[in-house]
Specification:
The complex is a heterodimer.
Chain A (H helix, E strand, L loop, with lengths): L2 H26 L17 H40 L2 H33 L3 H31 L1 H16 L2 H12 L3 H25 L3 H9 L4 H39 L4 H10 L3 H25 L2 H8 L3 H24 L1 H4 L8 H18 L1 H21 L1 H4 L2 H4 L5 H21 L2 H16 L6 H33 L3 H31 L1 H16 L2 H12 L3 H12 L1 H12 L3 H10 L3 H35 L7 H11 L2 H33 L2
Helix pairs in contact in A: 1-21, 2-4, 2-6, 2-7, 2-30, 3-11, 3-13, 4-5, 4-7, 4-9, 5-30, 6-7, 6-9, 6-29, 6-30, 7-9, 8-9, 9-10, 9-11, 10-11, 11-15, 11-24, 16-20, 16-22, 19-20, 21-30, 22-23, 22-25, 22-26, 22-28, 22-29, 23-26, 24-25, 25-28, 26-28, 27-28, 28-29, 28-30, 29-30
Chain B lengths: L13 E12 L17 H10 L3 E12 L3 E5 L6 H8 L7 E6 L2 E2 L5 H10 L1 E4 L11 H12 L3 H14 L15 H13 L5 E5 L7 H18 L2 E6 L2 H7 L2 E6 L2 E6 L1 H6 L4 H7 L4 H4 L2 H4 L13 E2 L5 H4 L10 E4 L5 E5 L1 H21 L1
Parallel strand pairs in B: 3-8, 3-9, 6-7, 7-8, 11-12
Antiparallel strand pairs in B: 1-2, 1-4, 4-5, 9-10, 12-13
Helix pairs in contact in B: 4-5, 4-6, 5-6, 10-14
The chains are: A mainly alpha, B alpha/beta.
Chain lengths: 693, 365
């Protein structure tokens, strides 16, 4: 019993120490400039060094990579040629049959309608190019991912190399490693192919390892006792048992490859659908952009549902037990249609190339453009209102602080010394009240928020921020996590990326906070209502399968380029994890505990706040973790619509083919992500253990 | 005491012999054994020394013989090393030292290839959580050991159907494991382990994952199979009553060491220490003590004229025969030859002695 109070005291002492240190830094930052601005003389030119290495590497080994590039081009060109040669009714028949096999009538119909959409909007050619790209990159990444997965399952040495690589690849934004790929492999569609193959491999590796590791030892032993040789044990026992998990990896790989193909259009645009979205977006032709974006979205949905259906074990078992007639019927129909189309196409060229007159793309997009203009014009007051309130009341205070953000035009009063005193007085009173009532967490939150809101993240001296993050990391996960967090921040500091980092942290922080407010409420609601849950599920699924790129389009249409649009896009993308995790966490609170609470006489409100939320907290924190990861990933994409931060730094580096800058800024994003990840995981694990879950 | 093999000498030949088996986990387990045979002067001291140096002794100096056709039970609580032991016998776990002789040949020196051959033809194993392949049907699961040997499809499926029928699963050949109940899944596991007609049959807590009622059914099923098949069996369980019910002899393990080996009645009547006594405390004696344990030699010429009983019957079964009479019963073996007699006084004496011992154990506990 002696250890407990002394430990609490220690924590309190640490927070008070931090407060004193912060007060000192804030007070002296006028005199000591280096507290706000890290001195330029101490910047390490890591980016420049990396460029020197890269230049040497490229000039020495480029021929190898160009060779690979040429080899990869062959199968892709072949598939492309085949897809363009096939009359469109034949292609449609084959894909519809595949969809039927994977998901029955509903999916077949959806696929058929989707492909019709591609035809009538005139994006058939581009869609087939994208398909060809995915068609080569997915098998490639699945093969690479499977190989690496098996290798690291069987060899500890390989595992030690592969694990940190996976961590990095999942957190370093794809833009960053597009640059070296670009330099090594040259321009063109093949770059997109290789980039997407690399990008899509990690989920396959992870799921392969996970699947193999999760094979119960008894099943392996039963194979050995059946007299299997080592090879038989692997191929006949372990691998098939791990298959469902490996198939999850296949599905995730396909989705990742598709989203990367679109991102890669930024460097290797060649008339695929991603390029179509991007180029029209750049020209502010949002009608066209939306039409093309829908193609990507439906492509993603079809691929997701089809690959999931084809790899669904239950489905395949049921299918294998059908009579042959039912098993092959749809293939026979598709075959007949395809052959007929090929033959008829010799006579009717309309079947070969969908005639331009039948496409109502231009009319629709003009109409869409006009419609959007109309809406924006008519509702500009409302739209501007939303945007301005968010900017002036949330974003700006967070960035530059109330001290600069508060001025009469929007707030109705100026930040006079009296008002500042009022602000501080109220904050200190509230803080005192929390301490007196013993609400320590709330006191800490108020203590942190008050100065940061007043001076803004920009006005917070870097030693204070580093100390704050370091202390949080230490309290959550001990010295190791703390050291990692501090080292990460120092990395950004010495690479002269502090300002960009703060910009990213602030935007991502705001987005994550809003996601949690919105998504958390929805999650609570969904946990208590099956109907809400049923409505939210397909919405969540759609938002998750939607390539990040596409989410930008509607946001841009209404709110134009700017930080608020970026914020909205990030929220749209990252709001899904809080909804899911909060619902999952609340629904999985042990029933007997809830029953006990009811029996004691808790009101539903008390049950939620006193029982369910505390017990669900570890799961909800994992949701927070996911939200941050999603937010950071989207932040990089959102650089396209004008953010200033690490994402923008990477994006600019991409434009200048500046490997060093791209990698350093990309690594910084990864480090921010990993710091958040480790801190939250450590906290969540400890909490989970404490709750005995 | 602890090294007694117990019971009347078994006339059947020794099938599997386990000699001084050690399994030590840790950084460098081999350092504790100069020779591979696992023979050490003082096993207790040696175990203590190994543990002091931060290694884990999962099995320490375990020795026993299993006779052909015998059901040998290894009983212990979780962490006692019983699962490790059965895995040492089939070399799913490589013992650190000691010898395992199957038909007189050391299994531990067999090459990888020889070992696979032995497993393919001489051994079958049933697992606690069934260990079925989830992607294969019942038929494919049962035929799997034959498949890996390269037996043709028609032949192996015919054999598998025979086994499925043996365990009473006809009609479920094309079901997948997840479509079956736990008891049915274990029947598949049993059928698979018997598919190659093994001589050695290892069962690792085969019924522990089942509901009590199903467990009893499966135990009866197991007895039925064994009376037909006469396998040599090593059976692992943590359930003392199950051990009493099924076992010819029982080996009780604790913390990796053997505490006692003996027949059910030996364990109940002469527990080696308090640990064993605690297990036997609540055991109904009339179900454990058998006729052979209370049998007296025939005195005089005539075997007597009372009804006859078999030496393997338990007292519970013969008690009704004493109702209304105090004449001794004649014990006759399988060939009908009189081998002894049972008197009411003898039965009461042995029961009283047993009760006294149980009471003493209770007091000690």
């Amino acid at each position: 019993m002696n250890g407990l109070p002394s430990k609490l005291d220690r924590t309190a002492v640490m927070w008070i120490g931090l407060a004193v240190f912060a007060a000192f830094c804030f007070a002296l930052r006028g005199e000591l400039r280096w507290l706000s601005d890290y001195p330029g003389t101490l910047v390490i030119p890591l980016a420049a060094w990396l460029n020197v290495v890269m230049t040497w590497f490229v000039s020495t080994f480029q021929f190898i990579f160009r060779g690979i590039s040429a080899v990869m081009d062959v199968p892709m060109a072949a598939i492309q040629a085949a897809l363009h040669w096939l009359p469109w009714p034949a292609t449609m028949a084959v894909f519809t049959a595949l969809a039927f096999r994977a998901g029955g009538w509903k999916l077949a119909l959806f696929t058929f309608l989707s492909m019709t959409y591609m035809l009538v909007t005139g994006y058939w050619f581009e869609s087939m190019n994208t398909l060809a790209l995915v068609g080569v990159s997915v098998p490639l990444s699945i093969a690479i991912g499977f190989g690496l997965g098996v290798l690291s399952f069987r060899s500890d040495t390989a595992r030690k190399i592969v694990d940190p690589m996976l961590d990095l690849m999942q957190t370093v934004p794809a833009f960053a490693y597009l640059i070296p790929i670009l330099l090594l492999f040259g321009f063109g569609p093949v770059v997109g192919l290789i980039a997407s193959a690399i990008y899509a491999a990690p989920p396959m590796v992870r799921n392969t390892i996970l699947g193999l590791e999760r094979v119960p030892p008894e099943i392996r032993e039963s194979g050995q006792m059946s007299g299997c040789t080592n090879r038989q044990t692997f191929w006949l026992v372990q691998l098939p048992t791990a298959m469902p998990q490996i198939m999850v990896g296949v599905n995730q790989s396909i989705m990742a490859a598709l989203s990367m193909v679109i991102i890669a259009a930024i460097i290797g645009g060649f008339g695929d659908i991603g390029w179509e979205v991007l180029s029209t977006m750049r020209k502010a032709q949002f009608g066209q952009s939306l039409l093309a974006g829908i193609v990507i979205a439906i492509l993603a949905m079809i691929m997701d549902r089809v690959s999931r259906g084809l790899t669904d074990l239950e489905r395949n078992l049921a299918y294998s037990q059908l009579p042959p007639k039912q098993r092959h019927g749809h293939w026979i129909v598709a075959g007949i249609v395809a052959v007929a189309a090929i033959l008829l196409a010799q006579v009717f060229p309309e079947l070969k190339v969908f005639p331009d007159e039948w496409i109502f793309h231009h009319a629709v997009s003009l109409w869409l453009n006009a419609g959007i203009d109309e809406i924006v014009r008519n509702y500009s007051a409302v739209l501007d209102g939303i945007k301005n309130s968010a900017n002036f009341f949330v974003l700006l205070p967070l960035r530059i602080g109330l001290i600069k953000a508060v001025y009469p035009k929007f707030w109705g009063f100026a930040m006079t010394p009296e008002i500042a005193a009022l602000y501080w007085g109220a904050a200190i009173l509230l803080l005192g009240y929390c301490v007196w009532k013993g609400k320590k967490s709330l006191a800490i939150v108020i203590g942190i928020a008050t100065p940061i809101l007043f001076w803004g993240l920009n006005g917070t001296p870097w030693p204070v921020f580093i100390a704050l993050v370091g202390l949080t990391a230490y309290l959550a996960g001990g010295w190791k996590v703390c050291a990692f967090a501090v080292a990460s921040l120092v990395f950004m500091l010495v690479n002269d990326l502090w300002e960009e980092t703060m910009r990213s942290v602030y935007l991502c922080g705001a987005a994550v906070f809003l996601c949690f407010v919105i998504g958390g409420s929805l999650g609570v609601w969904a946990a208590h209502s099956d109907r809400v849950s049923a409505i939210l599920r397909p919405v969540n699924d759609t938002l998750q399968t939607m390539p990040q790129f596409v989410i930008l389009i509607p946001v841009l249409m209404f709110f134009a380029v700017g930080e608020f649009s970026a914020l909205l896009a990030v929220i749209l993308y990252a709001v899904v994890p809080p909804i899911r995790y909060v619902e999952h966490g609340l629904r999985n609170v042990p029933a007997h505990v809830v029953e006990a609470a009811k029996q004691i006489g808790c009101t539903p409100r008390q049950i939620l706040f006193e029982v369910k939320l505390p017990l669900a907290l570890p799961v909800i924190m994992l949701g927070l973790n996911q939200t941050i990861m999603y937010g950071l990933a989207m932040l990089v994409i959102a650089a396209l619509v004008g953010t200033k931060g690490l994402g923008q730094a990477v994006y600019l580096a991409l434009g200048k083919a500046d490997t060093g800058m791209g990698l350093v800024a990309g690594l910084s994003i990864a480090l921010v992500a990993m710091t958040a990840d480790r801190t939250i995981q450590a906290w969540s694990n400890r909490k989970r253990k404490a709750l005995g879950l | 005491m602890s090294d007694s093999t117990g019971g009347a000498p078994d006339s059947r030949p020794v099938k599997l012999s386990c000699r001084n088996i050690w399994k030590v986990y840790g950084n460098d387990p081999a350092q504790f054994f100069d020779k591979g045979d696992g023979k050490v002067g003082d096993p207790d001291a040696h175990t203590a020394r190994i543990r002091d140096e931060g290694h884990i002794v999962a099995a320490g100096d375990v020795s026993f013989d299993v006779h052909a056709g015998e059901i040998f039970i290894i009983m212990g609580l979780s962490g006692s090393g019983k699962s490790t032991m059965v895995r040492c016998l089939s070399r799913l776990v490589e013992p650190t030292a000691g010898e395992v002789l199957l038909d007189g040949e050391n299994l531990l020196t067999a090459s990888e290839k020889e070992l696979i051959e032995i497993r393919r033809h001489k051994m079958g194993m049933v697992f606690q959580n069934f260990g079925l392949l989830p992607h294969q049907t019942v038929l494919q699961n049962v035929a799997f050991p034959l498949k890996v040997q390269g037996v043709g499809l028609a032949e192996r499926e015919a054999k598998a159907r025979e086994m499925i029928s043996l365990v009473g699963l006809d009609g479920r050949e094309n079901a997948f494991p997840r479509q079956l109940s736990g008891g049915q899944q274990q029947r598949v596991g049993i059928a698979r382990s018997l598919c190659v007609d093994p001589e050695m049959w290892f069962l690792d807590e085969p019924f522990s994952a089942l509901d009590p009622l199903i467990r009893r059914q499966m135990q009866d099923e197991f007895v039925r199979l064994q009376t037909m098949l006469h396998k040599t069996i090593v059976f692992i369980t943590h359930d003392f009553l199950e051990a009493l019910k099924l076992g010819d002899r029982i080996c009780i393990m604790k913390d990796g060491r053997v505490v006692q080996i003996g027949t059910p009645s030996e364990l109940v009547l002469n527990p080696a220490d308090d640990y064993v006594a605690e297990f036997t405390e609540d055991v109904p004696l009339v179900r454990v003590i058998r006729v052979r344990d209370v049998m007296e030699p025939i005195t005089g010429d005539a075997p007597g004229d009372g009804s006859s009983v078999s030496p393997d019957m338990c007292l519970e079964e013969i008690l009704p025969a004493f109702a209304g009479t105090d004449r001794p019963l004649v014990v006759r073996d399988g060939d009908g030859k009189a081998v002894g007699r049972v008197t009411p006084a003898g039965v009461v004496k042995s029961l009283a002695a047993g009760e006294k011992r149980q009471g003493a154990a209770q007091g000690a506990a």
